Amino acid sequence: MSEEVANTEADYGFAAPDDGPIAYLARIRDYYLTLGFGAPYRWAQYTDVPFQALPKPLSQSTVAIVTTAAPYQPDKGDQGPGAPYNASAKFYRVYDAPTAFDPDLRIAHIGYDRQHTSATDQNTWFPLPALRRALAAGRIGRIAARFFGAPTNRSQRVTLDTDCREILARCREDAVDCALLVAT
Distance from CA of residue 37 to its chain's centroid? Predict the structure, then answer.
């Protein structure tokens, strides 16, 4: 590379050539094949997006958190930041817990890129403190009394037909207007 081109790249603030995006989708497809699933993972992709407008302004709405993080289970091995994948910490049923306090949630049961992520900031998988700030600033009307845990059992059928229906029923019980989905 000529000095002139190198200086131009530096002047524009370009990232280094090896500082590109991680090929996450390809890596997940390969990972599922190595697990013996026989076919690459297929993400749910809709031709018509299944969302709807809020029935009232966000500043008047009750907001719930739906997370794939798991409650810490001390008897299930290492689940701390940077822990290796820990299938024993998985959960297979929807759970809920109060939002009145900060729960100890972990993500060791999730297959994420441990080489490029430290998993030290619980706010990335459970942003309850951020919701509290939004509430204090008047951006949301209320935080739902409970948050909901969505299992990551690798079955779109079970997720859609069982888990989503259960979460929706619990959201309706709590008069939730919208949910913040935090998938890890």
Answer: 23
| DSSP codes of every residue in 121-154 | -GGGT--HHHHHHHHHTTSSSEE-SEEEEPP--S
pLDDT number for residue 9: 61
Per-residue burial over 124-137, b = 16 or more CB atoms within 10 Å of its CB, e = otherwise = ebbbbeebeebeee
User: Which amino acid, one-letter code, is at 59?
Assistant: S
Distance in angstroms (rounded) separating the CA atoms of residues 59 and 122: 25
Do 60 and 142 contact (CB within 8 A), yes or no? no
Q: The tokens 């002139």 sit on which residue?
A: 4
* Predicted structure pTM score: 0.79
User: What pLDDT sits at residue 75?
Assistant: 96
Residue 52 lies in a domain: no
Round the CA-based radius of gyration of the chain to a whole number and report it.
20
What is the rounded CA–CA span in Å between residue 109 and residue 85?
A: 6
**6: containing domain:** 1-47
Is residue 107 in a domain?
yes
Residues 87, 43 within the same domain: no
Q: What is the pLDDT of residue 3?
A: 56
Pairing of β 146-149 and β 62-67: parallel
Same domain for 156 and 76?
yes
Based on the fold, state whether residues 23 and 77 are members of the same structural domain. no
